[in-house]
Every structure is written in C-alpha cells, then in structure tokens.
C-alpha cells in the first residue's frame, strides 16, 4: 500500500519522504507531505465496492463545504485538476491534513465538547442547505435504508449475539420508530455526514473538524446527532451530554426544536443500523458483535421508556 501511495502522489506533484500509514479501516490513509510542502491525508479508497462517481460527489460536496467555511478538510485537487485518480486499480484522493486529536482523545469537559459539537453539526447542516450544487449522487439514509425490511447495512436481527427475547425487544422498538417516522409530516432531511463518531471529529482547541465523509448522503439531520451519541449510551452522564449536544445544535438552528422529541428515536435507529452493520464485518464470536448489540438494546430501552 505504501508503494501505491507514493506512486499515486505523482498526480499531486510527488511527495517528500515515505508516506506514513495512519489508518487502515474502510479506507487506508497515509500522512504525506507533497513536494510543495503541503501536508495531506492521502486516502486509498476501499476496493471492491467503490463507486468513483459517488466518491467524486463526496469530494465535490466537501470542497464546497470547506469553501463555505465549514470546518472539514478541503480536498486537494491533482495538478490536472482532478479530485481523485486511479493508481494501479486503486482509487486515490487527497484532503488537507488536520493536525488535531480526535474528540475521544482531546482534553476538556465532555459536556462542553458536546455543546460545541452540536453547534458544529448545525453549521454543517445549515451550510449544506445553502449550497447550490448540481444533484449529488450520494446514498440516502431514510426510513427504509435504516429500519426497513432490507436495511442498507443488514438486519440487526441477524446479529449472532442476540437472544430471542432481545430480538423481540428490538423489533418492538423498531416498529414503534417506524410509526413515529411515518407520522412526521415534514422531516428535516438534507445532506448529512452520517458517521459523526468521536474518531471522526478532531478538536484543535478552537474548532471541531469533521472528517471522513465516506458515508455522507441525504438523510435525517437527527441521525447525525444520534451518531455522535451512540458510542457513549452506556456511560455515566450520557443524558447531560445528549442535552448539551441538542442545546448546541438548537443555538444555531432553533427551528429544529422538534428534535427534542425525536432524538431518542434517532439514537435507536443508529443503534439498530450498527447492530446489523457489524454482522458481516467481524467473526460471529467477536466481542464487537455483543458490543453493538448492547448499544442497540440500551437505545431500545431508552426509547421505549424502560
């Protein structure tokens, strides 16, 4: 992979030294300094199911967001003006390097961090609404994608760590969420990040930066807030963090006040989605199967009021 990264860097004018591997998850990411001295995150996009058109749309959107003042890494175009290139059968792109720790490692009061994050997500959504882009070919994150009969990430009921009683509980909660969503006449839907986990939020002390827009698309704005909360649902002080996140969001988007009554539903929806997501991404005896199942169960109990 390092050899591919170095070869791909030629499209940006070449690099200084050896690319440093910093992440190998859905994408493989290298810390790289280009020949002109600019530091970038060079991303080798996941092979097998990558749609170059969708990746181009993601980069075009984040480029427009960065130009609008949203704290996200601006794509670095190649010398030929392209947003991504093919190198040895691997789709590669580069974005500005953000020199800051993830929120999970950043010092500070978690409640205040969540208030700041709420404001940051509100700014993202408001900026997205103001953009005048051509139709962006991105996935959707709506009811059928998340809690339909065939969810995009797979059914939560297939999670091997669940027992029958737990599957029944999750089905009850899912059905209630379907009814609640169906009753919303004008849901707040638009371009969202869709993966606002703590590792995808960097804190430089002044700004919170949103990175990794791989899953971005059209969906419920409340889903972004729920994603920011789901990892901590079993931690002490979760309620205060959730309230701070919501207060920060509403301080910038006061018209989104209906989210107060919907947030627990969206946390449940994220929990269900990821309980299905892990099924095909880890062995059935992997502890993460139970971890994601437990989050979904905690969200279901919260949503159902018990």
Automatic annotation (TrEMBL):
Signal peptide: none annotated. Residues 23-256 form the Aminoglycoside phosphotransferase domain. GO terms for molecular function: homoserine kinase activity. Keywords: Kinase, Transferase. It comes from the Bacteria. One of its GO terms (biological process) is threonine biosynthetic process. Belongs to the pseudomonas-type ThrB family. This is Ser/Thr protein kinase RdoA involved in Cpx stress response, MazF antagonist. It comes from Tropicimonas sediminicola.
